[in-house]
Design brief:
- The chain is of the alpha/beta class and about 475 residues long.
- Strand 13, helix 15 and strand 14 form a beta-alpha-beta unit.
- Helix 4 crosses helix 9.
- The relative contact order is 0.10.
Length: about 475
């Protein structure tokens, strides 16, 4: 909310006008036209139409309004419009004409990103593309939602919490290879500040200004030849696949790993803690249909996918690791329940993240959300990371140890139901039954984790040294 137009220039409390904090230029510097100002009731319909079109392009919108303007009577009807989905036939035909010759005899690798996951029928198409090209396929944490767990060419998640086979494959890319990216997740937790060293890369996308772009594309993140295939990814694949199947020949053999992890990880944990590998494995086997999950900025958002290896058909998981804002998953869970109260909503958050939203639990007590607190007594990603970044410093200077909180008692005090997971996972089935049967009361689960059990790796640590300002 902006200040009333009647108070502008009179130093009202919390003055956000150009005479005070001047908030609109700040929002527009970040969001551009997606900062929508309601300063005329007659333009409300047009402004809401614009907001809907921006949201349909998977972009956030901030609506700023003067309360005395919005309080006026208005007769506005803004019907829901589906996201426009278009095929650029020129780009698609060019790809079909160029790709077979360039890729003949070369290894092709597919990288699925978050944009592809927005397409409702994408998993069958990505499987067909992998099969047609005999292409090993990797994905970002959000791009996993574009992949079928049955895709036999799947090699796993890359980079942050990346699977061993996926990372081995990704690090082996060279100028003899061809890469197809379905979307382009360029953030540090996906590409780790690096470029893709392939000789040729085709980027399928309908987005014009994705995160990390320069001038609308990612030419600056590719060492070799870079080409864009514009258009809705699902429609484009549906168009090009039948044509490719008629002309693709001479594909080199590909190793198809069943187990995507090769590291030996200790299963020994402190007394009173769960074995996180067993915990995430049991969860992955236990998901039920019509679920959705969100990973907060805690060890869950690297360990869960490492253990799971492949996406689960009953529960897409999402994270906002480009911004990496601790506590943000709580709001995503609330939003998911508000948007679709029938969704079984699971949020995995840390005991450090809790500090950012714990005071808001009472307001979410009756929305039927499930919150798993990964309780390791640490800012664990920071704590373990500093062992690599500044190994010679005393750990007391990390400021990574957290005071213990009785999360179950806190949850119940705020109107939630609460459970403490037993170290042997003996009550996990009971807890999941409660999560899936809850009709209104939200459920918190305290999961005792040993911060010293390192599962998913964090390649970003090697970008962080005392010689940098990161």
């Amino acid at each position: 909310a902006l200040n009333s137009t009647l108070s502008i220039g009179r130093s009202p409390l919390q003055d956000v006008s150009e005479h005070g904090m001047n908030i609109i230029p700040q929002l527009r510097a970040e969001l551009g036209e997606a900062c929508i100002v309601i300063d005329d009731i007659d333009s409300l319909g047009d402004r809401l139409e614009l907001a809907q079109s921006i949201l349909a392009s998977s972009k956030p919108v901030a609506i700023a309004f003067h309360p005395d303007i919005l309080s006026k009577d208005a007769d506005v009807d803004v019907p829901r419009r589906e996201r426009p989905r278009m095929l650029d036939q020129i780009d698609a035909d060019r790809f079909v004409n160029e790709f077979p010759q360039i890729s003949r005899g070369r290894r092709v690798i597919i990288y699925a990103g978050a944009e592809a996951a927005r397409c409702p029928g994408i998993t069958e198409l990505t499987t067909a593309l992998s099969e047609t090209l005999q292409a090993p396929t990797v994905w970002s944490v959000n791009g996993a939602n574009a992949i079928s767990p049955d895709n036999r060419y799947g090699h796993g998640y890359i980079s942050f919490g990346g699977n061993d086979e996926a990372m081995k494959l990704w690090r082996s890319i060279n100028s003899d290879d061809v890469v197809i990216t379905l979307g382009f997740d360029s953030g540090e937790y996906s590409l780790n500040l690096g470029s893709i060293p392939a000789g040729h890369l085709w980027h399928f996308t309908a987005w014009t200004s994705p995160y990390g772009h320069q001038d609308g594309d990612f030419r600056h993140r590719v060492d070799g030849d870079y080409r864009v295939v514009r258009g809705d990814i699902e429609q484009t694949l549906d168009y090009v696949l039948p044509k490719l199947k008629r002309v693709i020949t001479d594909r080199p053999p590909v190793n198809l790993p069943k187990d995507l992890n090769t590291r030996t990880i200790s299963r020994h944990v402190r007394d009173g803690c769960v074995d996180a590998i067993a915990f995430y494995s049991e969860l992955h086997r236990s998901w039920r249909p019509h679920s959705i999950g969100f990973d907060d900025v805690c060890t869950a958002y690297k360990d869960r996918q490492y253990v799971a290896q492949r996406p689960h058909p009953s529960i897409p998981f999402h994270t906002v690791h480009d911004g990496s804002a601790m506590g943000g998953a709580f709001g995503l869970g609330v939003g998911a329940r508000a948007a679709d109260p029938s969704l079984h909503t699971f949020v995995f958050s840390g005991d450090g993240c809790w500090r950012l939203y714990g005071g808001a639990l009472a307001e979410a007590a009756n929305i039927g959300m499930n919150l798993f607190i990964i309780n390791n007594g640490r800012y664990a990603i920071v704590d373990k990371g500093l062992e690599v970044v500044i190994p010679d410093w005393e750990k007391g200077r990390y400021h990574g140890v957290l005071q213990n909180i009785d999360f179950v008692a806190a949850a119940k005090a705020h109107g939630w139901d609460g459970y403490r997971l037993r170290p042997d996972l003996g009550n996990l089935d009971e807890i999941l039954d409660a999560c899936y049967s809850a009709k209104g009361q939200s459920v918190l689960v305290d999961v005792p984790i040993d911060a010293d059990q390192v599962i998913g790796l964090n390649p970003r640590l090697y970008n962080l040294t005392t010689d940098t300002y990161l």
